[in-house]
Amino acid sequence: MTMDVPQIEAEIEGFRQSYNGALRNALTKDLKSLSQDEAVELRSELHAKAITLFNAFERSLDIYDGSSTYITKDYRRAKYGDAVNYCEMLIKYWTLVRRLEEVHQLTSLLPSVNAYGSIQRAVNKTAPKEQIGTFRARFQELKLPTMAFDNRNKHNGFINPKERFTRLQLWIGTPFLLLTIVLAFLNPEMTGIQYHVIRVVLALSVSVVGSSLVQDNIQIKWTFQKSLAIRAAGWVAVFVLLYFANPPAPPSPFPAP
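The chain above was modelled as a monomer; its predicted structure follows.
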């Protein structure tokens, strides 16, 4: 399974710069001098940038926490430290929004009950208890959800699709792998058809399980003859390698199928 960490981080950085530009523009405004329509337009523009940025950052937290990713502990700690900064950014952003709503008597924007759950869980893992308590109190003052601050076992519901596929590979491949190994050793005197079936199923199950544990995508080009070549990628490439590279010798004398 592959994951382009630099691409994810570059995307977040682009969203952050766009958000900061909208925030600077809002901070230059005299909120009291704005008409109500101008206030609504200003809030909408800033809120759109904020949602894009914070959602992207939360998704990156969930992806990096997934069991199918290959992120070092140091990198995860650094990411949790970023979550503290993003928590402070959230407070500053919503303080401005609430001030704008108060001045112009706008209907308050209310995030969903599970919003910012990933950021809160990351803060729980790295920040001192006093700072977590301060964050939680400010969130409540700003009418923001504190689901993960209140219950660390709660999750925002996002699951990395790659992680789901990896779990499916393990659930399917592992039982077949174990069953094939048991059958191979329980029946040493195999018929020809049994030998071929077990060889195919064993290579298939090992390729499915093994490819779920490999970080990068495997690609091969296997040439049998000048006019016959096979190109394969992913678990199919692993299967081709296992089946054709140094295959086990058949029973001798080879029994008829």
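Residues 5-150 form one domain.
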